[in-house]
Specification:
35% of the residues lie in helices and 23% in strands. The protein is of the alpha+beta class and 128 residues long. It has a 5-stranded mixed beta sheet.
Length: 128
């Protein structure tokens, strides 16, 4: 099997994911998964697609993450991994789709409008 590459996005985060059959090593920006995402919740989010398809430990992942915060990056990586698994085996699509791992979460920060302190908050109105 040759390398499968996909892309995952979430908020401002972008993840370029390369998977190849291996021992289950996950390298992110030349660091191990535990080094890059020290929180166990974020490590769980990254591995969710593998656990759902019961392929944990069968693929090596190399990913380049850019932009956003750590939570957005973890979810972008999960989307990229899920897309790569579907490219490898189209039968995984139904399982991953039902869990929502193939849907790009398109929610992004709303822009700040002029004449307001934030996106929706208004300055206090004074009648007199």
């Amino acid at each position: 099997m040759d390398t499968i590459n996909t892309i995952g996005r979430r908020k401002a985060a972008k993840a370029r994911v390369y998977i190849i059959e291996g021992k289950g090593n996950i390298i992110i920006n030349n660091k191990k998964l535990e080094e890059y995402f020290p929180l166990p919740q974020l490590q769980y989010v990254v591995k969710q697609a593998f656990e759902t398809t019961e392929t944990l430990g069968k693929f090596d992942v190399k990913a380049n993450l850019d932009g956003g915060g750590i939570n957005g990056q973890a979810e972008a990586l999960r989307l990229g991994i899920a897309r790569a698994l579907v490219k490898h085996n189209p039968e995984y699509r139904t399982v991953l789709k039902s869990k929502g791992f193939l849907t790009r979460d398109s929610r992004v920060v709303e822009r700040k409008k002029p004449g307001q302190p934030k996106a929706r908050k208004k300055f206090q109105f004074s009648k007199r």
